[in-house]
Amino acid sequence: MKNKFFLFIAFFLVVALVWAVQNGQGDTSQGIIDCGNSHDCLYEQISGGRSAKVIITEKIESLFLEEKSEVKIEPYNGQFKVIMTILELKRLEREEPLTKSVIGSISENCPQIIDNLSEIESASASCTVNTAEEAKTLAMKGLSNTVINKYSCTGKLVDEINRICVTPDFPNFPPGIKKPAIYLYPLRESKVRIAVDLKGVITKSEPDYNTGWEVTAKPSGLINGRYDYLFYEARLDELKLPKEGWIVKYGDLKKWFDVTLKNLGLNVKEISQFEDYWLKELPLAEYYEIRLLDDIFLKENMDLKINPEPETMIRRNFYFKPQEFKIILKEPEIVTPERKGFTVIEWGGLLDNQYR
What we know:
Elements: H1 2-22, E1 33-34, H2 39-47, E2 52-60, E3 65-76, E4 79-91, H3 104-108, H4 117-120, E5 124-129, H5 132-141, H6 145-150, H7 156-165, E6 176-185, E7 190-198, E8 200-206, E9 213-217, E10 230-236, E11 246-249, H8 253-263, H9 268-281, E12 287-292, H10 295-301, E13 302-307, E14 312-323, E15 343-351
Helix pairs in contact: 2-5, 8-9
């Protein structure tokens, strides 16, 4: 009777083990539970303090690649270590419908990955998160610049992404400058000639730019009897960002613009028109990283040639980037300029929304 009981228990354990293996939830020889492609299984196992992994095959929309990758999560000193490994990359036909994967978010802004497949295949990235929920989310969404920075991800995959995708100046090429608005305030009604010495190409303008603007401006700022400002948009050949900047909550943008733009030398009308445009243009996000392009870059890449020459020129072109999490930036020191004589004001910006 006792032998039959033990045989029954052994049979039950074998059946349970076979079921677990067939359902992708069996222990490997290293004690890693294989959850197949189930993120719910992954979450359940790591919430119970066990190491687990998923293996996912997905398609990368921006590169027309199929990626097979492994995400392994291990409890580690009260936290969770998330290890992502690219197992295989396969090119796809352009007609196939595609989705995202571990490197999908990165690749949207880094098409040159397609020319460096051998460097990232079999490469891994290791990130450390605080909760099982964060680990599951990371396993499902994959890598992005925000993830790499927030979780201090390291490893060959991160090194290769940085090498392949990040240039010394700007990751998006070519960058586009939106809505530079040029205000003219001569001391008396005057004919004014304006040209943009641009390293790039103008894509929009009002009035038509052609080879430059020749307009009549009044002290009130009215141009040709109808315009508050001259307007253009352009694609730049390059962009160099300053190291300093601001991090602003999305809900605080208007209040921040009210204060900062005034301190930067803009008047009430200019601030209002800036906000009318940019508060509609900036997509919803948790935070915005904001940097102010410096005068040296503007002069070298989008210089304004104005005749007669103004006594005061104030140019405020911003770089906006939505961020999911608050990052640390050193804020620049602001010195409010004095508006004297014939004054020219310009505001504009660039929106980098590739890593949201």
